[in-house]
Specification:
single chain, 4 helices
Length: 141
């Protein structure tokens, strides 16, 4: 359920970027909402998946979370490409030869949020492995 909500927020942000600037006044930054939602979802799934897990299981869970984030980014990039293709097809460019849309800076935002979520899970896994290794070392002394 949460994943579908994050997809919807990301797609709404892409569609908001494709809308002509003079027709809307953005009252909320959907890119930031997407990034925060994605990071919170990844952290919650990481916590739930690793609550009673060993180090090998944690590595597997991190890879699964990373794959889910990458899939989400691929879907958003595909939606952006389809949006641009539809706008080109219906002739939304203001004059012949004019740029259809500004360059996709919004995709950089999504990529940055996705990478932050993936790196966050990797750092949490490394921190947990380091903490368990420290506890094992103290038990042996």
């Amino acid at each position: 359920m949460a994943v579908m909500l994050i997809y919807a927020i990301g797609i709404a942000g892409l569609l908001q970027d494709a809308w002509p600037a003079q027709l809307y006044r953005p009252w909320i930054n959907l890119h930031a909402v997407f990034g925060i939602s994605l990071c919170l979802m990844v952290l919650a799934q990481y916590r739930r998946a690793t609550r009673h897990a060993d180090d090998d299981d944690i590595a597997i869970r991190c890879r699964q979370l990373s794959r889910a984030v990458y899939l989400m980014l691929y879907v958003l990039f595909g939606v952006d490409l389809l949006t641009r293709a539809v706008l080109l097809r219906i002739g939304a460019a203001p004059r012949p030869g004019a740029a259809l849309l500004p360059p996709p800076e919004n995709l950089r935002d999504y990529l940055a949020y996705g990478l932050a979520a993936v790196l966050g899970t990797r750092l949490l896994a490394a921190w947990r492995r380091g903490g368990s290794a420290l506890a094992d070392h103290q038990d042996h002394e």
